[in-house]
Amino acid sequence: MLKKKQYISVTKKTKTMQLQTEIDIKPFGEKLSHTGKILLLGSCFANSMGERLHDAKFDVCINPSGVIYNPFSIASCIELLIANKEITENDLLQHNGLYYNFCYHTSFSSVEKQSALAKMNNANRQGSEFLKKTKTIIITFGSAIAYKYKKTDTIVANCHKIPACEFEKTVLTIADIAKIINLSIQKIRAINTEANFIFTVSPVRHLSDGAHANQLSKSRLLVAVDEICKNNRHCQYFPAYEIMMDELRDYRFYADDMLHPSSLAVDCIWQKFSTAAICSESLKLIEEIKKISAAKMHRTFNPDSDEHIKFIKIYFEKTKQLQAKYPFLDLTEELKYFGAQRKYDSD
Fold first, then answer.
1. Which residue range is the domain that position 309 belongs to?
2. 198 and 74 share one domain
3. In this structure, are residues 75 and 181 in contact, taking their beta carbons and an 8 Å threshold?
4. Are residues 115 and 41 part of one domain?
5. SS3 label, residue 343
6. CB–CB of 323/339 below 8 Å?
7. Are strands 98-100 and 93-95 parallel, antiparallel or unpaired?
8. This prediction's pTM
């Protein structure tokens, strides 16, 4: 298996020939810092990047409405967060014994009406408060193909396994995508003048309608994002799709389903993203956090050995010092773990 930063090359005499396209990414003007909140919205790739930001101890909120693929539903999610709208019983539908709402992922559904409402409203309240204070919003478009529920003529975020005959497939136009997302940006900036935006197009392939339809869909998303970024000075684009298609164009970089990037591929994209989008101080801080995380994951055959006791003591102290130096970090879990593992007296 290839390492994260390994390139295949061949040497002929003194000249090295590179046999892999490397996507060149200019450093972002506005960079991410641990002191700023980050909201992620969109496809499952937004979840993957959000998890890595969370592991690096950034203050993140990931998909408060669940995974969303099409830009119109992302805009609807933003509307819910801005309005902090309370979902009521009248907003719920029922199918196969589950209560659901078309704006939310199936993970919010429940056999009990009050449980579904509680999950939706709790997530919406948290996301709404986060939106007002967030420094950066990362939006990942997954597909330009959307589905309208015929009874209400509205585009849904999730079909909730309702029979396909009750939906109409529609392909969103570049103009409509740009228009609705530009409007969402304006509405967000009206309540949060500090908000900046990073757009990506998900490298996950949507092949249910065929490879050609997937390429057409991604093409529309790419052109729409380009229009959005040209018209908004607070927007930047990160080429996750291009990295996967060109730099990592090998099935070894796909998961078993041959649709989603593998963990290694996401790590490669994360490495590119970190270099371009995260400030130098936070990059150094991430390295310190990695060491503490690795120590927390370390397992020993003899937890009572002097060597292990010393190891735990060292990392407990390192974690305390890091927390004191950077009070905005949440190292509660690590401090609790090392504290519980200690085998020595402390002040």
1. 287-341
2. yes
3. yes
4. yes
5. coil
6. no
7. antiparallel
8. 0.91
